[in-house]
Amino acid sequence: MSVNNTSVRDGYIELKFGPRWKYIACVRGFIQNFLAISIVDQSKADKIAMAASELLENAVKYASKDDTHIVIKVSPATEQIQILVVNTADQESIDTLLTIYKKISEGDALQVYVTQMKEAALRSDGKSHLGLARIRYETGGDLKVDVHNREVQVSIAIG
Amino acid sequence: MNRLNIEKIHEDRMEVEVFDENSNICVRFKGDIDMEDPGVFLDPFFNQLHEGMIAQKIKEVKADFKELNFLNSSGIKAVAKWIMKLTELSDAEKYTIRILYNRDITWQVTSLPTLNFLVPGVVKVE
């Protein structure tokens, strides 16, 4: 997904910020307000705000540069929303992300989420590795991860 | 103060408080749990709650999430960790967790009922 693919009929916003945890709640609130004027379905708006918040948490936690940004694209005709979160990470974080993504991408979304919750409960390192499984289950959206050099792009499309 | 002597947590925009409720216990969550590692506060809280429930042979705790606006996945991990502790108990020690959720908050409708699958039979979501 890229902003370059956006047609003139689509609307989008792009936010770029230094990776500070405190900013995530502000961005989540901003996205909810943006979506309130863009789409009618409140439940969908809530799911998108949750997904954006979880993706930003991951991006901020593992960012190795001050270049975290998020793009939210709205297609008015279909009310389809796409979110893209981009950051730069070190190779170890990228490998972990790809392993989690592979693990949570297949099988029944609820089963995968419950399994990830059980595994998270056993972790003692302060990490949950639960965000992507949660997003997949709660939004039912199409989740993708792309890595180019050290740039990580995580996107989700919610119809 | 409640009978488990657990103090209220008020950190950032999160509030968690324990109340006595007849012969049982109620835990009320309010605000937003969206800090980087909420387990720092929630893990000791849930440990104290769990130990108190066993020591005082209390058979039910109500976990009221109705006023919780947001819970990030690290917060869900902390709740799951608490629930999973029930698998370590004998039948005599086991207690029931009744989860109350708000049907107007989307993440609660989708995420909280899934906690029922962690330890079937001891978690009731209503």
- What is the helix tally of chain B? 3
In the sheet with the most strands of chain A, the strands line up as: 1-2-3-5-4
Tally of discrete structural domains of chain B? 1
Mean pLDDT of chain A: 88
Instruction: Tell me, briefly, the overall form of chain A.
Output: globular
User: How many runs of DSSP E, i.e. beta strands of chain B?
Assistant: 6
CATH fold name of chain B? Transcription Regulator spoIIAA
Helical residues, percent of chain A? 40-55%
Quick one: biggest sheet of chain B? Answer: 6 strands, mixed
Walk me through this protein's architecture:
- The complex is a heterodimer of chains A (159) and B (126).
- By secondary structure, chain A is an alpha+beta fold.
- Chain A has helices spanning 22-36, 42-62, 91-105, 109-122, 131-139; strands spanning 11-17, 68-75, 80-88, 142-148, 151-158.
- Chain A has a single domain (3-158), classed as Histidine kinase-like ATPase, C-terminal domain (Heat Shock Protein 90, 2-Layer Sandwich), CATH 3.30.565.10.
- Chain A has a five-stranded antiparallel sheet with strand order 1-2-3-5-4, with helices on one face.
- In chain A, helix 1 (22-36) packs antiparallel against helix 2 and helix 4 runs antiparallel to helix 5.
- Chain A is globular, with a radius of gyration of 15 Å.
- The model of chain A has no long low-confidence stretch (mean pLDDT 88).
- Chain B is α/β, with parallel strands linked by helices.
- Chain B has one domain (9-125): Transcription Regulator spoIIAA.
- Chain B is built from three helices and six strands.
- Chain B has helices at 39-55, 73-84, 106-111, and strands at 9-11, 14-21, 24-33, 60-71, 96-100, 123-125.
- Chain B has a six-stranded mixed sheet with strand order 1-2-3-4-5-6, with helices on one face.
- In chain B, a hairpin with a 2-residue loop joins strand 2 (14-21) and strand 3.
- Chain B is globular and about 35 Å long.
- The interface between A and B is medium-sized, with 30 and 27 residues.
